[in-house]
């Protein structure tokens, strides 16, 4: 009799134990949590990549600022705002005429790698060119850039 009571008590304890009960989450909920965890890990990885890119960009900006300072100190360089670069000189001539028609300089000059550069304006200092660059990007072409001669 004692054995029977012991077995019944053991059966009640084992059947009420949480280890033997079904989990409270469905498989769909578990899969959703796993997918969310993977997405968060991917976002963390992307954030780390962006931090690396930001650090590299900051280094490049610092290097460019040093070069800019060196050019300003030389004082014999001229800054041009370039609105087009062409390998074929007839294209440069046509674009220069179009730029002149808009009221800009439209000067054609020889650039690196045998490109014909079309400038919208030329400046004695890089700071003056930087000041004029925004207006030219707004009115002529967004991709205008500064070429230091």
Features of the shown structure:
single chain; 149 residues; Alpha-Beta Plaits; 4-stranded antiparallel beta sheet; 4 helices; 60% helix
Care to describe what's here?
- The chain has 149 residues and is of the alpha+beta class.
- 60% of the residues lie in helices and 16% in strands.
- It contains 4 helices and 4 strands.
- It has a 4-stranded antiparallel beta sheet.
- Strand 2 (107-110) and strand 3 form a beta hairpin.
- The longest helix has 48 residues, at 27-74.
Write a concise synopsis of the structure shown:
Helix content is 60%, strand content 16%. A four-stranded antiparallel sheet has the order 2-3-1-4.
What's the topology here?
Elements: H1 2-16, H2 27-74, E1 79-86, H3 89-101, E2 107-110, E3 116-123, H4 126-139, E4 145-148
Antiparallel strand pairs: 1-3, 1-4, 2-3
